[in-house]
Design a protein that fits this description.
419 residues; alpha/beta; Molybdenum Cofactor Biosythetic Enzyme, Chain A; Molybdopterin biosynthesis moea protein, domain 2; six-stranded mixed β-sheet; 29% strand; binds adenosine monophosphate; binds magnesium ion
Length: 419
């Protein structure tokens, strides 16, 4: 135990490392069409089968000339054209130029392209005197300038982004090798939870966690299997766990992992698997369960994550603890948590030493270019509006107490899949 560890509470990094140690990445692969590949993880390197651009081409609309001709005369006639997709293929007489458009192939022998804004048409001749002196290879994009044939373009383990899709298209590759997406079955637990649209009776609330979990899973590149709301009933819960395990690599639940009378999750999981119920040194999000649902004759082994029921805690524990696990399972070897960056507090932050707080904050840049951060207000783990209006987490170290205005704190900007 380190100097700052609180007895009975597991530090966040310890929890993440323990989970990661027990995970074997998915090894099944397939190929997907490029237009469906976004969010998949590459199961093999993508190397370029060609040079990009595949030929020397013009960066401007203008005129292709030979520098040696310009030394003799700054005026010359146009003898032909090279347009995109229609190269000039005739003989090119000395002392003449070729009209050329952006992206068109550079005629053999051309070593300078002069943009049309620097050329004057005078009768049958083009006058280039305004463009002098010229630089060798000006306005010419050489073959392989962007990517050379055989170069590693995207490595195995990389999760495909919006920006990668046109890159792969540039290489002419229609199908890409990817890992199967993790299948994740999830359900909410609680007698009080009602579906949206239902009329609430006394003591009931709407089930919001399932909506948050589903959208986060999908944005993280998982196949989300929604098993609904399961009441606090031992036999129904056990059935739900078994049904989830039959279909998924990972089972995620929310609620029922603390120590309430109706929290049956622990009892059931003692029967179905090997699960640790942890108290994590983070706030919100202390109760968290992790383990395995063991293989039987009918079912394969599955990972299990039990999120706390309070909506802010459920989303935060998913974000901080479950995402690294899913990244490793998905074969996404490049994944990293967002970095912590320093910011000046514009408001006080209430904090007691003992756990790492992930308070919800709003950052902005002041006139001096410094990052400042304010609290979103109510930091209760049941108050979800604080999550919605925030644009960052304010990460307050485990040992830290109250923060006053002007102190430096660390903030973590939300990852793109939180938008
Ligand atoms: P539990 O962990 O089951 O004791 O739940 C803790 C708190 O979170 C209680 O106030 C629950 O009503 C609430 N809660 C649990 N599950 C959900 C859910 N799916 N959506 C919204 N609130 C929930
Ligand atoms: Mg409950």
């Amino acid at each position: 135990m380190g100097c700052c560890d609180t007895p009975g509470l597991m530090p966040i990094d310890t929890a993440i490392n323990k989970m990661l140690e027990s995970i074997t990445p998915i090894s099944q692969t397939r190929t997907v069409a490029l237009d469906e590949a976004i969010g998949h993880v590459l199961s093999a390197d993508i190397c370029s089968p060609m040079n990009v651009p595949p030929f020397d081409n013009s960066a401007m609309d203008g005129y292709a000339v030979r520098a040696c001709d310009l030394e003799k005369s700054s005026q010359m006639p146009v003898v032909g054209k090279s347009f995109a997709g229609q190269p000039y293929d005739g003989e090119w007489p000395q002392g003449s130029c070729i009209r050329i458009m952006t992206g068109a192939q550079i005629p053999t022998g051309c070593d300078v392209v002069i943009m049309q804004e620097q050329a004057q048409v005078s009768g049958d001749m083009i006058d280039f005197s305004q463009a002098l002196p010229v630089k060798a290879k000006q306005n010419i994009r050489p073959i392989g300038d962007d990517i050379t044939q055989g170069a590693l373009v995207l490595p195995k383990g990389h999760r495909l982004t919006t920006r990668d899709i046109p890159l792969i298209a540039t290489l002419g590759i229609p199908m890409v090798p990817v890992y199967h997406k993790p299948k994740v079955a999830f359900f909410s637990t609680g007698d009080e939870l009602k579906p949206l649209g239902a009329e609430l009776k006394a003591g009931e609330i709407y089930d919001s966690n399932r909506y948050g979990i589903k959208v986060m899973l999908e944005k993280f590149g998982c196949e989300a299997i929604d098993l609904g709301v399961i009441p606090d009933d031992k036999s129904l819960l056990k059935q739900a766990f078994q049904q989830a395990q039959e279909q998924a690599d990972v089972v995620i639940t929310s609620g029922g992992v603390s120590v309430g009378e109706a929290d049956y999750t622990k009892e059931i999981l003692d029967e179905l698997g090997e699960i640790g119920f942890w108290k994590i040194a983070m706030k919100p999000g202390k109760p968290f369960a992790f383990g395995h649902l063991l293989a039987t004759n009918e079912r394969q082994q599955a990972l299990f994550c039990g999120l706390p029921g309070n909506p802010v805690s459920a989303m935060l524990t998913f974000y901080i603890l479950v995402q690294p696990l899913l990244a490793k399972l998905a074969g996404n070897s490049e994944w990293k948590a967002q970095p912590n960056i320093p910011a000046i507090s514009k408001t006080p932050f209430k904090k007691a030493p003992g756990r790492t707080d992930y308070q919800r904050g709003i950052y902005s840049i002041n006139e001096q270019g410094q990052i400042e951060v304010s609290t979103t207000g109510n930091q209760s783990s049941g108050a979800f509006r604080s999550m919605s209006i925030a644009n960052c987490f304010v990460v307050l170290e485990q040992e830290r107490g109250r923060v006053d205005v002007g102190e430096t704190v660390k903030i973590q900007l939300f990852s793109p899949n939180f938008y």
